Amino acid sequence: MRNAAETREKLLETATGLIWQSNYSSVGVNEICKQAGVTKGAFYHHFESKADLFIAASRHYWDRMKRDMDAIYSPSFTPLEQLENLIQLIIEKQINECSSKDMEVAGCPFFTSGGQAGIDEEKICQAAREMEDHMQRYSVALVRGLKADGALRGDPDVDQIARFLHHFVQGLLIYGRLMNSLDAVRADLREGIYRLLDLKDAYRSEGAEQPVSSAADAA
């Protein structure tokens, strides 16, 4: 028998997985409870609504994601190495998250659901905005570091380029999910990022993506 903490954890993990495979609107409380192996009473003991579960699940997901981000952006890496780590992590996460699913690209379930939500679904939009804010801070730090190292052409607006970078990646993942093709993501990911950053030729790499275990080990 699960204790309360284990039940809550199972609900969070199940909700994230189901939303990742489909979307927020199509996943109901009954299905979440069935897949998690808990009663509806147990569900409502922990969460007032599916929207409240969604917010909690997004924060739970970010706690894990933050460890990955801290690893690839470790100060032990140069800004250029951090950029390469990011490109590798994006691909690797799709492979890992889709390994047991009938899909090649998962994307971010919370960013995607936020984009699908209506303006009256404030809690869903809030969760997506929180995720956006978290990622934006890392993107700003990356672009600022590359600019300070002289890797970028001109005098770009750091905050604006960081937004461009994050939005491009999310849009490309949505496209890859639509096409159900990781190759479609690989084809444009590196070149798209380089163009948005306006990275100088001397700083560009043609290397294939490698596992980011070395980045994770540095955390």
UniProtKB/TrEMBL annotation:
Query: Which keywords does UniProt give here?
Result: DNA-binding, Transcription, Transcription regulation
Read off the InterPro entries from this record. Answer: Homeodomain-like_sf (IPR009057), HTH_TetR (IPR001647), Tet_transcr_reg_TetR-rel_C_sf (IPR036271), TetR_C (IPR011075)
Q: Locate the HTH tetR-type domain: which residues?
A: 5-65
Q: Name one Pfam family in it.
A: TetR_N
The molecular function GO annotations come to: DNA binding
Residue range(s) of DNA binding per entry: 28-47
PANTHER family associated with the record:
HTH-TYPE TRANSCRIPTIONAL REGULATOR YJDC, TRANSCRIPTIONAL REGULATORY PROTEIN
Q: What name does UniProt use for this protein?
A: TetR/AcrR family transcriptional regulator
